[in-house]
Amino acid sequence: MTVDQNLSSRINLMRIILISGIVLVHVPHDPETSPFLGLYGVFDWLRVFFGDALFRIGVPCLSAISGYLLFRRGWSAFNYPATIKSKTKTVLLPFILWNGGLLIAVMLLQRAGVGVGYFPDLWNASPREMLSHGVAVEELPVNVPLYFLRDLFVCILLSPLLALSVRRFAVPTLAVLLLLTAIPDLSLVIVQKKSILFSFTLGIALALHKIDLKMLDPYAKLLTVTTLILSAGLATGLYLTGPEFTFGLNLLRNLLAVFGALGFWVASSLLVENRLGRRLSETGSLSFWIFCAHYPLLVILWMVWNKGGADFYPAFYIGAVAVTFLLLIVTNQQMRARLPALYAILTGSRSGKPKPLAHNSAAEPASSQRISATTAYTPRRR
Length: 382
Prior knowledge:
Number of helices: 13
Radius of gyration: 20 Å
Shape: globular
Order of helices and strands: HHHHHHHHHHHHH
Helix content: 55-70%
Number of domains: 1
Number of strands: 0
Low-confidence stretches: 358-382
Oligomer: single chain
Mean pLDDT: 90
Protein backbone atom coordinates (compact mmCIF):
# COMPACT_ATOMS: atom_id res chain seq x y z
CA MET A 1 0.00 0.00 0.00
CA THR A 2 1.41 3.38 -0.94
CA VAL A 3 0.72 6.64 0.84
CA ASP A 4 0.37 9.73 -1.36
CA GLN A 5 1.94 13.10 -0.66
CA ASN A 6 -1.30 14.55 0.71
CA LEU A 7 -1.51 11.86 3.40
CA SER A 8 2.19 12.27 4.12
CA SER A 9 1.73 16.01 4.69
CA ARG A 10 -1.36 15.45 6.83
CA ILE A 11 0.44 12.97 9.06
CA ASN A 12 3.39 15.32 9.50
CA LEU A 13 0.97 18.17 10.25
CA MET A 14 -0.80 16.11 12.92
CA ARG A 15 2.53 15.33 14.55
CA ILE A 16 3.57 18.93 15.05
CA ILE A 17 0.10 20.16 16.08
CA LEU A 18 -0.57 17.44 18.62
CA ILE A 19 2.94 17.40 20.03
CA SER A 20 2.73 21.16 20.41
CA GLY A 21 -0.57 20.60 22.19
CA ILE A 22 1.07 18.50 24.87
CA VAL A 23 3.24 21.45 25.79
CA LEU A 24 0.00 23.07 26.95
CA VAL A 25 -1.15 20.07 28.94
CA HIS A 26 2.17 19.76 30.76
CA VAL A 27 2.47 23.35 31.95
CA PRO A 28 3.10 22.88 35.70
CA HIS A 29 0.90 24.11 38.50
CA ASP A 30 0.42 23.46 42.20
CA PRO A 31 -2.78 22.94 44.23
CA GLU A 32 -3.15 26.69 44.74
CA THR A 33 -3.18 27.32 40.97
CA SER A 34 -5.29 24.33 39.92
CA PRO A 35 -7.67 25.22 37.07
CA PHE A 36 -10.51 23.55 38.99
CA LEU A 37 -10.44 26.31 41.61
CA GLY A 38 -11.76 28.71 38.99
CA LEU A 39 -9.61 31.59 40.20
CA TYR A 40 -9.14 32.98 36.69
CA GLY A 41 -12.51 32.19 35.14
CA VAL A 42 -12.45 31.57 31.39
CA PHE A 43 -8.68 31.21 31.44
CA ASP A 44 -8.97 28.24 33.80
CA TRP A 45 -11.73 26.72 31.66
CA LEU A 46 -9.40 26.95 28.66
CA ARG A 47 -6.71 25.13 30.61
CA VAL A 48 -9.16 22.29 31.26
CA PHE A 49 -10.34 22.37 27.65
CA PHE A 50 -6.81 21.96 26.29
CA GLY A 51 -5.39 19.76 29.02
CA ASP A 52 -8.18 17.37 29.97
CA ALA A 53 -10.32 17.30 26.85
CA LEU A 54 -9.04 18.39 23.43
CA PHE A 55 -5.41 17.29 23.53
CA ARG A 56 -6.10 13.98 25.21
CA ILE A 57 -6.96 13.05 21.65
CA GLY A 58 -3.29 13.32 20.68
CA VAL A 59 -2.13 9.95 22.00
CA PRO A 60 -4.82 7.87 20.25
CA CYS A 61 -4.43 9.80 17.00
CA LEU A 62 -0.66 9.42 16.78
CA SER A 63 -0.58 5.84 18.03
CA ALA A 64 -3.11 4.93 15.32
CA ILE A 65 -0.83 6.56 12.74
CA SER A 66 2.09 4.53 14.10
CA GLY A 67 0.18 1.26 13.74
CA TYR A 68 -1.00 2.18 10.26
CA LEU A 69 2.48 3.06 8.99
CA LEU A 70 3.96 -0.10 10.43
CA PHE A 71 1.69 -2.26 8.24
CA ARG A 72 0.98 0.08 5.33
CA ARG A 73 2.66 -2.34 2.89
CA GLY A 74 0.59 -5.27 4.13
CA TRP A 75 1.22 -8.38 6.17
CA SER A 76 3.43 -10.10 3.60
CA ALA A 77 5.92 -7.22 3.57
CA PHE A 78 6.20 -7.04 7.38
CA ASN A 79 9.63 -8.14 8.66
CA TYR A 80 9.51 -8.52 12.43
CA PRO A 81 13.28 -8.85 13.18
CA ALA A 82 14.06 -5.87 10.94
CA THR A 83 11.26 -3.86 12.54
CA ILE A 84 12.51 -4.53 16.08
CA LYS A 85 16.05 -3.60 15.06
CA SER A 86 14.83 -0.37 13.47
CA LYS A 87 12.50 0.62 16.30
CA THR A 88 15.14 -0.07 18.92
CA LYS A 89 17.10 2.73 17.27
CA THR A 90 14.23 5.10 16.57
CA VAL A 91 12.00 4.57 19.64
CA LEU A 92 13.75 2.72 22.47
CA LEU A 93 17.17 4.41 22.26
CA PRO A 94 15.77 7.99 22.38
CA PHE A 95 13.65 6.98 25.38
CA ILE A 96 16.69 5.67 27.24
CA LEU A 97 18.87 8.66 26.35
CA TRP A 98 16.39 11.44 27.09
CA ASN A 99 14.90 9.89 30.23
CA GLY A 100 18.24 8.60 31.49
CA GLY A 101 19.83 11.98 30.93
CA LEU A 102 17.14 13.74 32.94
CA LEU A 103 17.33 11.09 35.65
CA ILE A 104 21.05 11.72 36.12
CA ALA A 105 20.57 15.50 36.00
CA VAL A 106 17.82 15.39 38.63
CA MET A 107 19.92 13.20 40.91
CA LEU A 108 22.79 15.68 40.70
CA LEU A 109 20.47 18.65 41.33
CA GLN A 110 18.78 16.99 44.27
CA ARG A 111 22.14 16.07 45.74
CA ALA A 112 22.80 19.81 45.82
CA GLY A 113 19.38 20.44 47.37
CA VAL A 114 17.72 21.71 44.19
CA GLY A 115 14.57 20.33 42.55
CA VAL A 116 13.17 18.38 45.49
CA GLY A 117 9.37 18.51 45.22
CA TYR A 118 9.42 19.34 41.52
CA PHE A 119 10.72 15.95 40.45
CA PRO A 120 10.36 12.65 42.35
CA ASP A 121 12.74 12.24 45.29
CA LEU A 122 15.27 9.98 43.60
CA TRP A 123 17.73 9.65 46.49
CA ASN A 124 15.04 8.23 48.77
CA ALA A 125 13.36 6.08 46.13
CA SER A 126 13.30 2.29 46.51
CA PRO A 127 14.92 0.10 43.82
CA ARG A 128 11.44 -0.70 42.52
CA GLU A 129 10.56 3.00 42.28
CA MET A 130 13.85 3.74 40.54
CA LEU A 131 13.00 1.18 37.86
CA SER A 132 9.82 3.10 37.11
CA HIS A 133 11.59 6.46 37.17
CA GLY A 134 14.23 5.09 34.81
CA VAL A 135 12.35 2.80 32.42
CA ALA A 136 8.64 3.19 33.33
CA VAL A 137 8.15 -0.38 34.52
CA GLU A 138 5.09 0.30 36.67
CA GLU A 139 4.73 4.07 36.88
CA LEU A 140 5.61 7.13 34.83
CA PRO A 141 9.26 7.89 34.01
CA VAL A 142 11.00 10.95 35.41
CA ASN A 143 10.57 12.64 32.01
CA VAL A 144 6.84 12.08 32.14
CA PRO A 145 5.75 12.34 28.46
CA LEU A 146 8.31 9.71 27.45
CA TYR A 147 6.03 6.99 28.79
CA PHE A 148 4.63 7.03 25.26
CA LEU A 149 7.90 5.85 23.75
CA ARG A 150 7.92 2.98 26.20
CA ASP A 151 4.30 2.08 25.40
CA LEU A 152 4.86 2.43 21.68
CA PHE A 153 7.78 0.01 21.81
CA VAL A 154 5.64 -2.48 23.75
CA CYS A 155 2.98 -2.21 21.03
CA ILE A 156 5.63 -2.80 18.37
CA LEU A 157 6.82 -5.91 20.22
CA LEU A 158 3.21 -7.15 20.25
CA SER A 159 2.51 -6.06 16.65
CA PRO A 160 2.54 -9.55 15.01
CA LEU A 161 -0.05 -10.83 17.50
CA LEU A 162 -2.18 -7.71 17.12
CA ALA A 163 -1.96 -7.91 13.33
CA LEU A 164 -2.90 -11.59 13.20
CA SER A 165 -5.86 -10.91 15.47
CA VAL A 166 -7.29 -8.02 13.44
CA ARG A 167 -6.68 -9.82 10.13
CA ARG A 168 -9.19 -12.51 11.10
CA PHE A 169 -11.23 -11.00 13.94
CA ALA A 170 -11.00 -7.25 13.47
CA VAL A 171 -14.35 -6.23 15.00
CA PRO A 172 -14.20 -8.47 18.12
CA THR A 173 -10.56 -7.57 18.76
CA LEU A 174 -11.16 -3.83 18.49
CA ALA A 175 -14.37 -4.08 20.53
CA VAL A 176 -12.58 -5.78 23.43
CA LEU A 177 -9.70 -3.30 23.37
CA LEU A 178 -12.13 -0.36 23.18
CA LEU A 179 -14.02 -1.68 26.20
CA LEU A 180 -10.80 -2.00 28.17
CA THR A 181 -9.84 1.53 27.15
CA ALA A 182 -13.17 3.06 28.10
CA ILE A 183 -13.54 1.59 31.60
CA PRO A 184 -12.09 4.05 34.13
CA ASP A 185 -9.55 2.92 36.75
CA LEU A 186 -8.74 -0.28 34.86
CA SER A 187 -5.02 -0.88 34.37
CA LEU A 188 -3.63 -3.09 31.60
CA VAL A 189 -0.19 -3.26 33.27
CA ILE A 190 1.72 -3.77 30.02
CA VAL A 191 1.08 -0.16 28.91
CA GLN A 192 0.89 3.06 30.90
CA LYS A 193 -1.86 4.50 28.69
CA LYS A 194 -4.69 2.15 27.74
CA SER A 195 -5.80 4.04 24.65
CA ILE A 196 -2.44 3.42 22.99
CA LEU A 197 -3.04 -0.30 22.63
CA PHE A 198 -6.49 0.15 21.09
CA SER A 199 -5.48 2.96 18.74
CA PHE A 200 -2.28 1.25 17.61
CA THR A 201 -4.31 -1.88 16.81
CA LEU A 202 -6.91 0.22 14.99
CA GLY A 203 -4.15 1.66 12.83
CA ILE A 204 -2.98 -1.85 11.98
CA ALA A 205 -6.53 -2.84 11.04
CA LEU A 206 -6.93 0.20 8.77
CA ALA A 207 -3.72 -0.73 6.95
CA LEU A 208 -4.32 -4.47 6.61
CA HIS A 209 -7.92 -4.05 5.45
CA LYS A 210 -6.93 -1.23 3.06
CA ILE A 211 -9.39 1.31 4.46
CA ASP A 212 -9.41 4.60 2.56
CA LEU A 213 -8.15 7.24 4.98
CA LYS A 214 -9.80 9.99 2.95
CA MET A 215 -13.29 8.53 2.91
CA LEU A 216 -14.61 11.01 5.49
CA ASP A 217 -12.89 14.09 4.08
CA PRO A 218 -16.14 15.39 2.51
CA TYR A 219 -17.52 15.68 6.05
CA ALA A 220 -14.40 17.32 7.48
CA LYS A 221 -16.01 20.59 8.56
CA LEU A 222 -18.91 18.85 10.29
CA LEU A 223 -16.71 16.35 12.10
CA THR A 224 -14.21 19.02 13.13
CA VAL A 225 -16.90 21.25 14.60
CA THR A 226 -18.50 18.26 16.33
CA THR A 227 -15.17 17.30 17.91
CA LEU A 228 -14.66 20.83 19.22
CA ILE A 229 -18.20 21.01 20.60
CA LEU A 230 -17.88 17.64 22.35
CA SER A 231 -14.50 18.66 23.77
CA ALA A 232 -15.98 21.93 25.04
CA GLY A 233 -18.91 20.12 26.63
CA LEU A 234 -16.63 17.62 28.32
CA ALA A 235 -14.33 20.42 29.51
CA THR A 236 -17.29 22.21 31.07
CA GLY A 237 -18.34 19.10 32.97
CA LEU A 238 -14.79 18.49 34.15
CA TYR A 239 -14.32 22.13 35.12
CA LEU A 240 -17.46 22.13 37.26
CA THR A 241 -16.72 18.85 39.04
CA GLY A 242 -12.89 18.46 39.06
CA PRO A 243 -10.34 17.62 40.13
CA GLU A 244 -12.03 14.36 41.15
CA PHE A 245 -14.21 13.31 38.23
CA THR A 246 -17.27 11.09 38.30
CA PHE A 247 -17.27 7.63 36.71
CA GLY A 248 -19.42 8.96 33.87
CA LEU A 249 -17.11 11.88 33.10
CA ASN A 250 -14.06 9.62 33.15
CA LEU A 251 -15.84 7.24 30.79
CA LEU A 252 -16.72 10.08 28.41
CA ARG A 253 -13.19 11.42 28.61
CA ASN A 254 -11.74 8.05 27.65
CA LEU A 255 -14.18 7.66 24.76
CA LEU A 256 -13.59 11.18 23.44
CA ALA A 257 -9.84 10.57 23.51
CA VAL A 258 -10.38 7.67 21.12
CA PHE A 259 -13.14 8.88 18.82
CA GLY A 260 -11.94 12.47 18.83
CA ALA A 261 -8.89 11.28 16.91
CA LEU A 262 -11.20 10.94 13.92
CA GLY A 263 -12.10 14.63 14.18
CA PHE A 264 -8.46 15.64 14.33
CA TRP A 265 -7.60 13.48 11.35
CA VAL A 266 -10.30 14.83 9.06
CA ALA A 267 -9.48 18.37 10.23
CA SER A 268 -6.01 17.85 8.79
CA SER A 269 -7.54 17.70 5.31
CA LEU A 270 -8.64 21.32 5.80
CA LEU A 271 -5.56 22.60 7.60
CA VAL A 272 -3.05 21.19 5.12
CA GLU A 273 -4.60 23.24 2.32
CA ASN A 274 -3.57 26.63 3.74
CA ARG A 275 -0.09 28.15 3.80
CA LEU A 276 0.45 27.81 7.55
CA GLY A 277 -0.62 24.17 7.48
CA ARG A 278 1.78 23.41 4.65
CA ARG A 279 4.62 25.11 6.50
CA LEU A 280 3.89 23.17 9.67
CA SER A 281 3.81 19.90 7.73
CA GLU A 282 7.43 20.56 6.71
CA THR A 283 8.86 20.98 10.22
CA GLY A 284 10.09 17.37 10.27
CA SER A 285 12.07 16.30 13.33
CA LEU A 286 11.20 19.46 15.29
CA SER A 287 8.09 17.72 16.61
CA PHE A 288 10.13 14.88 18.11
CA TRP A 289 12.58 17.36 19.65
CA ILE A 290 9.69 19.27 21.27
CA PHE A 291 8.20 16.02 22.52
CA CYS A 292 11.36 14.83 24.25
CA ALA A 293 12.64 18.14 25.65
CA HIS A 294 9.63 20.21 26.68
CA TYR A 295 8.78 18.66 30.05
CA PRO A 296 12.06 19.28 31.94
CA LEU A 297 12.21 22.78 30.48
CA LEU A 298 8.71 23.58 31.75
CA VAL A 299 9.54 22.30 35.23
CA ILE A 300 12.73 24.38 35.35
CA LEU A 301 10.74 27.48 34.38
CA TRP A 302 8.24 26.63 37.13
CA MET A 303 11.08 26.40 39.67
CA VAL A 304 12.41 29.79 38.59
CA TRP A 305 8.92 31.34 38.71
CA ASN A 306 8.32 30.12 42.26
CA LYS A 307 11.64 31.58 43.37
CA GLY A 308 10.51 34.98 42.09
CA GLY A 309 7.45 35.08 44.34
CA ALA A 310 4.96 36.27 41.70
CA ASP A 311 1.43 34.94 42.06
CA PHE A 312 -0.42 35.82 38.82
CA TYR A 313 -0.48 32.33 37.31
CA PRO A 314 -1.74 33.26 33.80
CA ALA A 315 1.47 35.27 33.30
CA PHE A 316 3.53 32.18 34.06
CA TYR A 317 1.40 29.94 31.85
CA ILE A 318 1.60 32.20 28.80
CA GLY A 319 5.24 33.11 29.37
CA ALA A 320 6.35 29.53 29.97
CA VAL A 321 4.68 28.30 26.78
CA ALA A 322 6.22 31.12 24.72
CA VAL A 323 9.72 30.65 26.16
CA THR A 324 9.53 26.87 25.79
CA PHE A 325 8.62 27.01 22.11
CA LEU A 326 11.24 29.65 21.41
CA LEU A 327 14.04 27.74 23.13
CA LEU A 328 13.10 24.42 21.59
CA ILE A 329 12.91 25.83 18.07
CA VAL A 330 16.30 27.51 18.46
CA THR A 331 18.01 24.53 20.09
CA ASN A 332 16.56 22.19 17.46
CA GLN A 333 18.03 24.31 14.67
CA GLN A 334 21.40 24.68 16.38
CA MET A 335 21.79 21.03 17.27
CA ARG A 336 20.80 19.91 13.79
CA ALA A 337 23.29 22.31 12.19
CA ARG A 338 26.25 22.04 14.59
CA LEU A 339 26.04 18.50 15.98
CA PRO A 340 24.19 16.48 13.31
CA ALA A 341 25.49 13.09 14.48
CA LEU A 342 24.35 13.62 18.07
CA TYR A 343 21.11 15.18 16.85
CA ALA A 344 20.37 12.10 14.76
CA ILE A 345 20.87 9.83 17.77
CA LEU A 346 18.69 11.94 20.06
CA THR A 347 15.89 12.11 17.50
CA GLY A 348 16.00 8.44 16.56
CA SER A 349 17.54 9.08 13.13
CA ARG A 350 14.85 11.63 12.35
CA SER A 351 16.60 14.58 10.75
CA GLY A 352 15.53 17.68 8.88
CA LYS A 353 12.53 17.69 6.58
CA PRO A 354 10.16 14.71 6.57
CA LYS A 355 10.69 12.05 3.92
CA PRO A 356 7.91 10.57 1.79
CA LEU A 357 5.98 8.03 3.83
CA ALA A 358 6.88 5.23 1.46
CA HIS A 359 10.22 5.24 3.26
CA ASN A 360 9.27 6.62 6.68
CA SER A 361 9.28 4.73 9.94
CA ALA A 362 6.32 4.71 12.29
CA ALA A 363 4.80 7.98 13.34
CA GLU A 364 6.68 10.08 15.80
CA PRO A 365 5.10 9.69 19.20
CA ALA A 366 3.48 12.15 21.39
CA SER A 367 1.69 12.32 24.63
CA SER A 368 -1.37 14.20 25.72
CA GLN A 369 -1.36 12.95 29.26
CA ARG A 370 -1.75 15.81 31.71
CA ILE A 371 0.81 15.81 34.52
CA SER A 372 1.09 18.48 37.18
CA ALA A 373 4.64 19.28 38.24
CA THR A 374 3.59 20.53 41.65
CA THR A 375 5.66 21.68 44.56
CA ALA A 376 4.81 18.32 46.13
CA TYR A 377 5.49 15.74 43.43
CA THR A 378 2.29 13.80 42.75
CA PRO A 379 1.97 12.01 39.38
CA ARG A 380 -1.48 12.50 37.94
CA ARG A 381 -3.83 9.63 37.27
CA ARG A 382 -3.59 7.93 33.90
